[in-house]
Model the fold of this input.
Amino acid sequence: MLQPKKTKHRKQHRLRSQRKGISTRGASIAFGEIGIKAIGRGEVTSRQIEAARRTITRAVKRGGKVWIRVFPDKIVSAKGAEVPMGSGKGAPDHWVTEVRPGKILFEMAGADPVLMKEALKLAIYKLPLKCRVVTQEI
Done:
């Protein structure tokens, strides 16, 4: 699963107020021919990214090339079950990336276009937000 090799700080704030607006960077297909574009907003974990990647590669029978355009660089902490209130922030639990509407999550090229579209549709089911399969604008 994806995660940074080294971070400056062990824990981070959630900063849910910074999720406003739409994505301007990474909002168009840059490497492949077809991709997954986010319509909704939210957090995507490294496990969900890996599950979607596996689904894509298995659906095209390891043909073509896949680009992952998001990287989970934000740590989310969690406390254990039935822990009393207080006693500080919980331990680091998992890595996420914040996704805004318009962001391209995955791109593909080098396989049959119909097969690639079906593979990306299957991968959308693994993601926690609304997405759409888009092709490169000419």
